[in-house]
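Quick one:
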Amino acid sequence: MKLKDFPEDIREYIIPDQQGKLVYRCLGCGAEHDIKKLLYTCPDCNKVLLIYDNRFDRLKRLSGEQWQRILDYRKMLTIPALKGIYRFHEFIGPIIPLDSIIYLGEGHTPIVEANEFLQEKVGVKFYYKNDGQNPSASFKDRGMASALSYINSLIRKGLSSDILAICASTGDTSASAALYASYLTPHIKSAVLLPHKKVTPQQLSQPLGSGASVFEIPGVFDDCMKVVEALSEKYNVALLNSKNAWRILGQESYSYEIAQDFEYDMANKVIVLPIGNAGNITAVMNGFLKFYETGIIKTLPKIIGVQSHHANPVFQYYSEPDAKKREFKPVTVKPSVAQAAMIGNPVSMPRVIHLTNQYNELAGENRVNFVEVTEQEIIDWELLANRNGHIACTQGGESLAGLVAAQRSGVIDKEDIAIVDSTAHALKFSGFQDMYFSDKLSPEFGINPDPAMMNKPILVHPQNLEHIPEHGKPLKGKDFTTFVNRISEEIASMLNLKKADIE
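Output:
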């Protein structure tokens, strides 16, 4: 749709201007720092940062209804920079020029309603938001589009050059970082650190394919993160983990899309998310807060953060009902099928605490809650979801298990409508499904496969079948007819098929 065809009263706002005054703000000492230099922690007190727009109030000059129309009409544009997460430019990166924005197809992932059987099984109406349908097949692309677009703007302004982008990962972050960095070749090179033998083969192949330098080290993700942090403190590298506040900005688009897809009606809505490094739940809270403060949404939805009992530091923190007695303690993680969430010391924990307090205070009640689920529940709900038309990853199974747990604990009402996060594509974690089906999961996972859920291929080779096709040696004539008939009869017998009535 051409700009001249848009309604006149909102036409001037359809293409966003470069406005705003973004700063890094420390959640520890409150100090503000210029964004011209990439910062990951406060130079004064070493605490984590969030990016704030000190001119955010300018967005309140328009009514919430006007913003709804602007954002809805903006979806009709054919400008690549505004097709993805930067459809919400004013809320994510208002100072980034449109010609610096990287768009690889991220964002606008589908929300798919569960079928009647699955909704009855869960006991509440719900949808999956399939973030595995992003370019690198995970939600991480939202944050990478933001972080790399900003770095691209610095390169174009001559403020940065010869950048090495680096991250620690359980798989998805490395795939996304390597993909987006490769788009900016030759200005950026990338390196990723992975815990040895704790990343699926599918995930490992992605950064290798994008040309990144891939380093595997002993330990778990938390150990990789400490090495990456040391490198970012001592050397001139761009850290691309969610410690980078630009990542959080991009991931806010998840909440904006949900609001838009439900026509900005967030009453009785519940967002269910798995928690790994805690960047995603941080971003989702911050996104809904921005839309609420500008009147785009009138209600803050409930938010449920989910953790496995094998990696549950956030849940443990909030399990203490008295806020004054809460003390965050990292945990030693155990093996989890929700591998991407297997993090015992989440970098964004200070952000979670800060924004949860702000969210609940603005809502006037406790609308952010945390639940714990078992490994058995995670994989069983993932498999059941995928047997009913979804493409949920194991973290998507964790989210669905969390929805059931939240309902069981009374956090969710029967009239609520849930949006459940599947952070990645099911194929990335298909190895866990294969191990479940063949009963080869290590005892460390604490999972006992249900025979009714186990599925394996069946070799159909009838006895006394003299001739079978081979590669390069197809059957012909009577032998082929015999082969087809015998195979089809055996399959029909296995499936208890009835003969068709032929008139």
